[in-house]
Write a structure and sequence with these properties.
Distance between the termini: 35 Å
Radius of gyration: 20 Å
Order of helices and strands: EHHHEHEHEEEEHEEHEEEE
Low-confidence stretches: 1-10, 274-301
Number of strands: 13
Structural class: alpha/beta
Strand content: 15-25%
Length: about 300
Amino acid sequence: MSALRQPGERAGPALERIVTRTFTHPVIPCDPADRTNLRERMEALYGDFTDLSWLTDGLMVSYHDMVRTVVQELGPELVGVDLAITVDASPDCRHQSFPGPVLSHVLPGDPIMLGVSEQGVAGPYTALRIAHQYLRSGAATRALILIMEQSTLPPDDAAVRPVRDVAVAMLLGPEGTIGLGLPTVAVTRAGAAGALANEVDLVVAGAALADLPTGVPVRRAEPGHPCAGVWLALAELLDSRPDGGRVLVADRDPVLPYRCAVTVTLPTSHPEPPRQPAGDIASPAMPHLAIRPQKVRELVR
């Protein structure tokens, strides 16, 4: 349950737009020195590799590439963004620096710049919690959350390596029509997702989330995206223009003890039914989520 709004606080943020982008090659061609540098850093952590195919065949798309591409494609939509948060699940494969300074430099204005790194599944939820508090308190008016995943990583028996290089950009602000609750990030393998699922019309569930209750429709995130999976699935859902309803976006990390959830409230295009006179049978509760065939937006892939 969200905390009660304090006097002077604004309403919680709403989602204006969600955009996905898949990268099939680096924006700036990879220098052989980048691969050598990455190999040295990774072998210092994991020991010598007998199989280097992950490196020699890797695309080496940097977070810097992703930042510049997303900002260029969103263009004028970023005017008024005064809070930007980058989210990544692993260090950049080509740069020693963080992507935040690059994003701060290419965004218009002088936004507050924050970064969430190496929290796995919890990273995007943490970023949403931060944005929620900033926008609700009035410390910021519009926020950009940029989730990034790289596939050029060494094999790891425990962690999940992304199958593609992807970025998910979420714009939050006063023009949004999709309500966002306050995300929860619990340090536990069990959590409240099962209980919350009884109060929603649909669950967008991460690939590692296995203990959901029956009776609620579930849309599964694609495996192979440990950080961006449920957000890619949410973008696909919104692209099919669901008409009203409450959606639970829930996930748990396969390695770290994080269990995360956030409730998304979708707008309805149908007018509210007229009030029933006293004594009549009440109208039924919100119907199950109905997926409409029209496109709500063109996602950048």
